[in-house]
Write a structure and sequence with these properties.
Blueprint: H1 3-27, H2 41-53, H3 59-70, H4 81-88, H5 92-101, E1 109-120, E2 136-140, E3 143-155, E4 160-167, H6 176-179, E5 185-188, H7 196-204, E6 207-210, H8 224-231, H9 234-245, H10 257-272, E7 280-282, E8 287-289
Helix pairs in contact: 1-2, 2-10, 5-10
């Protein structure tokens, strides 16, 4: 997608969303400062998305060396770096709704997983100040970490269906019902989602939870299709790998909680706009990785 096409899509969304959002704030008696920035919310959102589509690892370097040098004609009212960083938090909400507004398919096959979002090295947890009182210390399969946990559901085409950011100590099974309340078909997860009560609740809603069994559990009868789906569960891990290594949703350079959320949502949006995603397709004999 070209820069012009991206801006058109984002701007069309903002023209519909921003008036409704501001109206809802007024109805709920939430104070909203008038937009005094020279750049529009659409322009700021586009720059944030483009950053996560580039190979830059540092936003300051991207803004000073790329945006201000090569994108001045595209953004004639470009802000200074410090002013732009101040305005980033103002587009977190519209950017999140834009992500959720992007088209996705109800394929009937979904994959769920969680991943850690480290905000600093575990040895510096007691010195960390930005997320003090928010981030927590917890242990994953890769060891101890300090930060948050991101829960994500994708379909068989690699499209993000739903997501949730929780504390690091949140049980993987707790947010499953909220993440899948509108989905029907099959949901594939790892052993961390094993729960008889959760499986029964989801089945009542039309969603079959598929997981492997632990070594101390009895083997369960399973159809060939379900066995094949369990073998392809790595698709959600591939999505998470791309989110962390290409879209850069995880790093330890945050200086603001609000901008941490903006960076996270922008990275997820950049992935969602990728033309090619990890996916599987069905044929008459089974599953084929695309």
């Amino acid at each position: 997608m070209s820069l012009e096409d991206l801006y058109c899509v984002v701007d069309d969304f903002c023209k519909e969303f921003m008036p409704e959002w501001h109206a809802s704030l007024i109805e709920n008696k939430v104070r909203q400062k008038p937009w005094l920035c020279q750049m529009s919310p659409s322009e700021i959102m586009v720059i944030m998305i483009v950053f996560h589509q580039q190979q830059y690892r540092n936003f300051k370097a991207f803004y000073l060396m790329h945006v201000q040098k090569y994108m001045k004609n595209d953004f004639p009212k470009l802000l200074s770096y410090s002013r732009f960083v101040e305005q980033m938090q103002s587009i977190t909400v519209p950017l999140f709704f834009f992500l959720m507004h992007l088209p996705k398919s109800e394929t009937g096959v979904y994959f769920i997983d969680s991943t850690t979002l480290k905000v600093c090295h575990i040895k510096r947890e007691k010195q960390h100040k930005v997320f003090k009182g928010k981030a927590e210390k917890s242990k994953s399969t890769m060891g101890w970490y300090y930060g948050f946990k991101l829960h994500i559901v994708v379909n068989s085409r690699g499209e993000i269906m739903n997501l949730k950011l929780t504390s690091a100590k949140e049980d993987d099974r707790k947010p499953v019902e909220d993440l899948t309340h509108e989905l029907f078909g099959k949901l594939v997860g790892d052993k961390g989602y094993i729960s008889k009560s959760l499986k029964e609740k989801l089945l009542e809603k039309g969603l079959e939870l598929l997981t492997k069994v632990r070594k101390n559990m009895k083997a369960q009868e399973m159809t060939l299709m379900n066995k094949l789906l369990l073998r392809k569960r790595a698709i959600v891990e591939t999505v998470i790998d791309q989110l962390k290594n290409i879209s850069q949703i995880e790093h330890s350079r945050h200086r603001s909680q609000n901008n941490f959320l903006t960076n996270l949502v922008a990275g997820l949006t950049a992935y969602a706009l990728q033309p090619k995603k990890p996916s599987i397709e069905f044929d008459g004999q089974g599953l084929v990785v695309v």
